[in-house]
Task: inverse folding
């Protein structure tokens, strides 16, 4: 699905990542960990085509990122749900409209998708907040809305960047349960986090591979963490 | 084809993804309105000068004058000889000598009423009306020189040419003004669109994150600006037409200035301005959107 082969990424003359190889197989569950500024977000951006590698090859659904046009990348993004730490909403639209945005941009019939949308909003526990504006939501509600938006197209892969960064423990467990549930539906999950407790909690429920970025290189942390 | 349909019919959800932008909205509306207002006047100028050029050309091209300057005793004979020559000239539809009253009326603006023509050595004027094909002025001059020594033919060429040239230039000036107005409208709408796109970089980033293609993003902006261009131009055109209507009515005494306006079916021309402005706004915003999206990572 998503493959990185000897990938390096440099910016402003400095190398942020070097010689990174990674393959996200269908239905797999991954954690990406490392200290702040180690390049977790950069790696995620490479995975969803927002960045082009300085060296090596990134393949999104068997397409070489370098050969892809912006529209090709957009089409690939419809198969990749992304949850940002800062969520990135359109603040003038309601929560419900924000969650439905991927349907709108891909030309789906919103009326026909209305039942699915309602079900998804209920699944993330935002039924009563559907018509609120994103700035009116709490941190946890924003993360859940972002997750709902990320999965509304039923993507093959979900990439989450510090999805529990701004929420309390209880909410982080709730979000984790949603991600595990998605994985059980066959979705590939990659979560970038520095929250080791979250990883330990997840490993009790799901077979997860833990990756660590250190000194600009990707390492496998193995089964024990 | 589908893209054109979506562009024309619109997509309610897509139209909402761009937040309302008060300043650029008013800027676009005002620019399009002001430019359409000016375009109405440029159009009126162009059409009025066109009419003027045609009128001067037609009136002057159809007439000529023969002036008889002869001693008192020979004036009648030379006038009769000149009329005979003219009557037998191909291309002359009518030739007649002006009466004393008509000649006095011609001189009245300079000498006042009651001019004693019989006491002054005033030449006799013969008005010549040409047929559609016209006559050969060179040939007529030679015949008159041979048969009527005191006759001078004035075919108005030296008056007609500079007047027609001036009217033609004025018409061209009107068209150039229209072109400049369209270009200025495009420039202003491009700037407004670029400002709106730059101000909405975050919106574009979110749309790309959820899989929006460039066409979708561009449409969301282009439709909005084209609609504003159209609405602004419609308002400006209506105001321009009202201003033209408020001008004094065209009268002979008023000459060119009061003739600035539309006549007959020419009133339909201003209706072309709003759709044209919409088209200009559409093209300008599409170009700006494509360029901006190309530059955005």
Result:
């Amino acid at each position: 699905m998503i493959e990185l082969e000897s990938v390096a990424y440099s910016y402003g003359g400095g190398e942020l990542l070097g010689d990174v190889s990674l393959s996200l197989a269908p239905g797999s569950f991954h954690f990406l960990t490392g200290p702040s500024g180690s390049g977790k977000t950069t790696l995620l951006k490479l995975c969803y085509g927002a960045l082009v590698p300085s060296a090596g090859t990134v393949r999104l659904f068997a397409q070489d990122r370098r050969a892809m046009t912006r529209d090709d990348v957009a089409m690939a993004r419809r198969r990749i749900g992304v949850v940002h730490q800062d969520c990135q909403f359109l603040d003038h639209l309601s929560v419900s409209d924000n969650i439905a945005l991927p349907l709108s941009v891909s030309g789906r019939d919103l009326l026909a998708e209305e039942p699915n949308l309602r079900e998804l909003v209920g699944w993330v526990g935002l039924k009563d907040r559907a018509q609120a504006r994103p700035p009116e939501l709490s941190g946890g509600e924003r993360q859940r809305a972002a997750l709902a938006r990320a999965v509304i197209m039923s993507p093959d892969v979900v990439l989450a960047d510090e999805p529990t960064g701004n929420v309390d423990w209880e909410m982080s467990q709730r979000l984790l349960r949603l991600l595990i549930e998605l994985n059980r539906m066959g979705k590939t999950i990659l979560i970038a986090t520095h929250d080791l407790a979250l990883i330990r909690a997840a490993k009790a429920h799901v077979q997860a591979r833990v990756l660590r970025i250190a000194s600009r290189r990707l390492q496998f942390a193995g089964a024990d963490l | 084809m589908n893209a054109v349909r979506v562009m024309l019919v619109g997509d309610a959800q897509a139209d909402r993804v761009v937040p309302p932008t008060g300043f650029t909205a008013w800027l676009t509306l005002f620019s399009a309105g002001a430019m359409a207002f000016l375009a109405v006047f440029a159009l009126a100028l162009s059409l009025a000068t066109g009419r003027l050029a045609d009128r001067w050309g037609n009136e002057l091209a159809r007439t000529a004058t023969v002036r008889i300057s002869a001693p008192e005793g020979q004036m009648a004979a030379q006038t009769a000889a000149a009329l005979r020559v003219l009557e037998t000239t191909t291309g002359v539809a009518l030739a007649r000598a002006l009466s004393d009253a008509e000649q006095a009326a011609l001189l009245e603006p300079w000498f006042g009423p009651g001019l004693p023509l019989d006491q002054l050595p005033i030449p006799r004027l013969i008005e010549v009306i040409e047929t559609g094909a016209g006559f050969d002025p060179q040939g007529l001059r030679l015949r008159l020189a041979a048969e009527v020594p005191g006759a001078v033919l004035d075919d108005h060429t030296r008056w007609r040419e500079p007047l027609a040239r001036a009217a033609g230039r004025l018409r061209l000036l009107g068209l150039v003004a229209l072109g400049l107005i369209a270009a200025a409208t495009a420039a202003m709408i491009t700037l407004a669109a670029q400002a709106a796109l730059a101000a909405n970089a975050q919106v574009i980033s979110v749309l790309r994150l959820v899989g929006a293609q460039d066409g979708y993003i561009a449409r969301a902006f282009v439709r909005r600006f084209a609609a504003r261009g159209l609405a602004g131009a419609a308002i400006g055109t209506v105001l321009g037409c009202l201003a033209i209507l408020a001008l004094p009515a065209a009268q002979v005494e008023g000459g060119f200035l009061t003739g600035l306006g539309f006549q007959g079916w020419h009133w339909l021309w201003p209706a072309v301005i709003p759709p044209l402005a919409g088209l200009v706004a559409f093209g300008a915003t599409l170009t700006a959107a494509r360029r901006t999206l190309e530059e955005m990572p």
